[in-house]
Design a protein that fits this description.
This is GDSL esterase/lipase. Belongs to the 'GDSL' lipolytic enzyme family. The protein has helices at 7-20, 25-33, 53-58, 87-95, 109-113, 128-132, 144-156, 161-169, 180-188, 193-216, 234-239, 258-281, 292-301, 356-379; strands at residues 40-44, 101-102, 115-117, 171-175, 221-225, 286-290. It is an alpha/beta fold. It has a six-stranded parallel beta sheet with strand order 2-3-1-4-5-6, sandwiched between helices. Helix 5 links the parallel strand 2 and strand 3.
Amino acid sequence: MHMAPPLSVLLMLLALIVCAGAAADSIADGARRSRTRFARIFSFGDSLTDTGNALRILGSRATISRPPYGETFFGCPSGRASDGRIMIDFIAEALGVPEPTPYLNGKTAAEFRRGVNFAVGGGTALDPAFFESRGLKLFVPVSLRNQTSWFQNVMRRLGTVHEQRNITATSLFVVGEIGVNDYLIGLIGNRTIGELKTFTPRIIDAIHSAVTDVIAAGARTVLVPGAIPFGCEPELLTIYRGRVDAAGGYDPESGCITWLNDLAELHNRELRRVLAGLRRAHPGTSIVYADLYRAVTDLVVSPARYGFRDRPLVVCCGRGGGAYNFDMAASCGAAGTTACADPSEYVSWDGVHFTEAANRRIACDVLERSLVTAIEFQTGRPALTRP
């Protein structure tokens, strides 16, 4: 009788599939046949997770609807803000589960049973009214509350309460990354760092509410990614170039803007604090924080270690020129912009989002550090032998 490999071996194989990028077919197939308890993914978030919803909303107005988006893997724009796959794609591949269906592309209950992606590029944690009352212009008027409402609509289509509970209990829920756009809207609207810090408790409350909603629906495993380092975004590095020194300067190791990264770290501290409270309130649910901040800063500080060129803050797809190859007036996909010859050498794809190569590394970090913790919780024993 064929016996599945022990969980420690499975986890190492999953990490190999994601991190190596070209594992042998036999290894990949074996890992998928011996999958973890997850049968599907339900995901929420913004453009770092969206696989088609923003494209459905914006159509040809979206820059992601035009080449060279999607060129590396799909050969054409796919609705992802990258040259190829994004983190959620690699996590689904490693776990051996279907690609979650973008909510706005789904038509049947059968499609939704495979897992659903509710994330929307440009979406916010906070409701549109919050920004409108402050005279701030939204990217897309879709909030995390909208996404959890869509989730509830899907649940009602998936059968009886008992059937719904069976589905949620065997699913991985990914809530985030979400909240970065809330801060970006304020930054582009020239709000002070002091005002932006007042956004943080509201954003964290919105994430808390979403996690509580999926737990109430029967989620047993919830992965909650934190904020990326805002100060390492070429878009913001370009906007604040020449104005940074008076506001706190650059980090000498990474070249990122210190005060913007301090804001991201504030967000992440508050998020971890709230997640700790949720764990105490729901001891039967695995609620795991994914440290995207560290995953991204590792690539920026030590690019050669991960196979990237030695100028990790330079954009692959842009109009050219300037310190970061980023121009607010001509973002990737606009007339006059071009992509670099080899996106796999770059961390940043378009100044805001990551290349497929960087997304793979970020997913690898999440798989090795965060999902191992979740699976250890489920099984009650170590997933990997640690020194």
